[in-house]
Amino acid sequence: MGEDNLCVVDIDIHKDKSIEEIDKIRQNLFDTLPPNVGLVKIAHGGLHIYCNRNYYRLPSNCNVKVAITDSFDIDVFAQMTKYTIENGQETKEIVQNRVVAPNTAIRKTKNNQRVTLKYEAINDRENASYLASLREILDKWNIDIEISYKDYAQQQHDRVYGVQIKDDGTIEQMNDELAQASVDGLKNLEIHNYPQPINMEVSLLSIFCGLYGISNESIRAEGLGNICKFNKLSANADKNYGQASSNGERKPNPWILTKILRYHNKDYYEQIIKPLLKKNYDAKKKEKQILINQTLIPNKIDLQDGFTLLENSSVAILVSDKNIMAALFHRSPRICPVPKTVPH
Fold first, then answer.
1. pTM attached to this predicted model
2. Block means of pLDDT (10 residues each) for the chain, length 344 residues?
3. CA 74 to CA 11: how far, in whole Å?
4. Which three-class secondary structure state does DSSP give residue 305?
5. Which residue of 140, 179, 213, 227 has the smallest Cβ count within 10 Å?
């Protein structure tokens, strides 16, 4: 199993259940699983199921609450390959997720008391080379979170437009057209205080980080004014508005706004933002090609200039072989070796 296929299904059993109920739920889950999985009993009675992603096309490497019941929630965490574009070349690296290792104890303070949380391996198969597939496990529960081939291919295709880091490692400035379009799309959003991943919810901090990254002052001011005017803030977001603004000003990045719109205003993103990202990408590509062309030094040959014919005894070729003759001329455009015909 490749390292980018290791996967953990996290069963988070609700803490309001009694010990007897938790044990029964966990046992019932055991009974639905294939034998070749790694099982770890986690703190508060939940369960980590180690399995093989086996190229299951997950939406991301961190998939929270893919299924919710009255007794437990299911998360799926995976190590996946992340692709980046650098100097025009695509590279890949493993993006890891962190889970507590089996047979580990963690001490923490709760209600002014030190408690020990244990993660106990149940069957010692979490390091096995052959594990059941994620698909096999999710199919038993009739859970399907796999993205289609079409969406996966489109994701791979669109990825190149979203890369906004320059060759020198700095973040590219957002042009006014794209900045204005991003501000116009930040409407009718539910904005929360706690900074969850952007694909899950919109946080006040991410909004401020994006808006403070806009270089055009009037567009930035319009965006800041629109936060409360056109969106719904949670009570905590409203309470911590000033602190979030201060923190966001220290971490400016306008491109966060396009990611917010991609997940939380999808129609607007597809119709307005994506075409502008492509337009921006095409403009950068054209500009780079112009710079490359300017560095090229033309090697002109005067067609009226005569050749010096020399005998090259080390060359024994057929005169009729035009490819080799062309190669010899390319190697020395001013000197033409006299080829000797190979005797039949």
1. 0.52
2. 79 90 89 87 86 87 86 85 49 54 63 72 68 88 80 68 62 91 96 83 94 96 95 94 93 91 93 92 83 74 62 43 42 45 48
3. 5
4. coil
5. 140
* Residue 319: HSE in the Cβ half-sphere, 13 Å Cα cutoff: 7
Q: Which two tokens stand for residue 57?
A: 């096309």
Of 147, 175, 210, the position where a domain reaches its end is 147
- What count of other Cβ atoms lies within 10 Å of the Cβ of residue 69? 10
Residue 113 domain boundaries: 3-147
pLDDT, residue 6, reads: 84
Question: What's the CA gap between 258 and 275, in Å, rounded?
Answer: 12
* Neighbouring residues of 12: CB distance < 8 A, sequence distance ≥ 6: 46, 72, 73, 74, 75
Do 59 and 103 share a domain, yes or no?
yes
Query: In this structure, are strands 190-192 and 202-203 parallel, antiparallel, or unpaired?
Result: parallel
The reply to whether 142 and 7 lie within a common domain is yes
CA 304 → CA 7, 219, 301, 337, distances in Å? 70, 61, 9, 19
Query: Are 290 and 302 in the same domain?
Result: no
- Locate all alpha helices (DSSP H) within the chain, ordered by sequence: 19-32, 134-140, 149-162, 176-185, 204-212, 217-230, 235-239, 241-249, 256-264, 266-268, 274-295, 322-331
Phi first, then psi: what are they for 192, rounded to 5°? -110, 165
